Hints:
The complex is a heterodimer.
Chain A: H1 12-21, E1 23-26, H2 32-44, E2 53-54, H3 55-58, H4 63-70, H5 72-82, E3 87-96, E4 121-126, E5 138-139, E6 158-159, E7 163-164, E8 171-176, E9 181-182, E10 192-200, H6 217-223, H7 232-250, H8 260-265
Antiparallel strand pairs in A: 1-8, 2-3, 3-10, 4-8, 4-10, 5-7, 5-9
Helix pairs in contact in A: 1-6
Chain B: E1 10-17, E2 26-33, H1 53-58, E3 62-66, E4 86-92
Antiparallel strand pairs in B: 1-2, 1-4, 3-4
Protein name (chain A): Phytanoyl-CoA dioxygenase PhyH
GO molecular function (chain A): 2-oxoglutarate-dependent dioxygenase activity
InterPro entries (chain A): Phytyl_CoA_dOase-like
Amino acid sequence: MPHPHRKNLLTSVQMAHFVATGSLRMDAVVPEEMNRQAIEVLDNGIPGVPYGTPLSEAFADSEFVQRLVQLPEVAGAIHSLVGPEPTVDHHAVHIRKANEGEAQNLHGDAIIDVREDAFDVQLMYYPQDVTLEMGGTLSVPGSHLRRTNESDTGRYQNLLGQTRLVCPAGTVQFLHHGIWHGGRKNDSSIDRYMFKIRFNPTVRQVGLWNLEDLYDEEVARELGQTFPWYENATGRLEIYNRVKLWQAITGDDTYDPDYWVTRVSNRPQRVVSQRSVNPHAKKVIA
Amino acid sequence: MTVQQQTLRQQVLVLYLASSALDARVVGWSTYDGTGATSPTTGDSDVPPYATGLDALKDGWRLFQAAQLLPPQPGHEYDVSFLKHEFFFEKLV
């Protein structure tokens, strides 16, 4: 795959948004002509690929998917998040049938994944306008750093500030591998289509985006945001953990705008006390 | 005279609160209906049924379980995982 043009890479503010929320959404980024073609392509199925196939080889038999991942904005986001030549973990076409009576439990994909300096992303493409009734993907902003395993979160039906996706045709969103999500019940009379690809990085994910605005104030604002479902105390730990992730992907372990990491890491080693203040020191008798 | 025995069924409300205090604000919720009259499910509402746990008590829900307060495992003090402040309520109908 060719290197994306710099103007199509994500900005630092967009990356900080991804680190804080676990997602990045691009509305109507896929052209209408492709969206019209998509339903038939997805109905026919996308040929499977072995785990770990390089992206440039994975879709040799699917011209449609090649075009999708080579759209300038999409290719720029993939490069920014996971770097050049990622591998395809797997892909899948998800169809929620009209009036389908079951919602998926809230879950994280695969198994518990606690990598602190690397992450996979999942591209989700919606070729149709998605209404609330069609049961667009439920996701929970800022849940991606929670250490939970797959559907152990199934007990949680609704969380304050959750996202019930409603979007125009051609929307693509990128999700961090750990985000809590699920397909919602489709209460409409229209089948809902979604195509997803999971990407694995093959390089260290450090500074892969457009770094011009690395120290923009908006970066700190993104990283410091909280979400309505966070508990008061745990919400502070969330910011601690996302700052650690930001430090890992920028290579700057001094960046800590709200001081959460620095404060609890401060263990000075310099000793200044003198022997004369030691109460156990032998007294010198003249 | 025939005596009819009525079978009571349980409706369960699970509230997740912003702190361990029962009058803290609701941040998450789930409901299960033992009567079968309703079928609550994942992602079916953006609006919590009550603003606080205490409001659920005022509306007649009976608290039957509250999450314990457990210290973090040594070495895992900064980990985030499940919601900590989980309260189970019931109504018998």
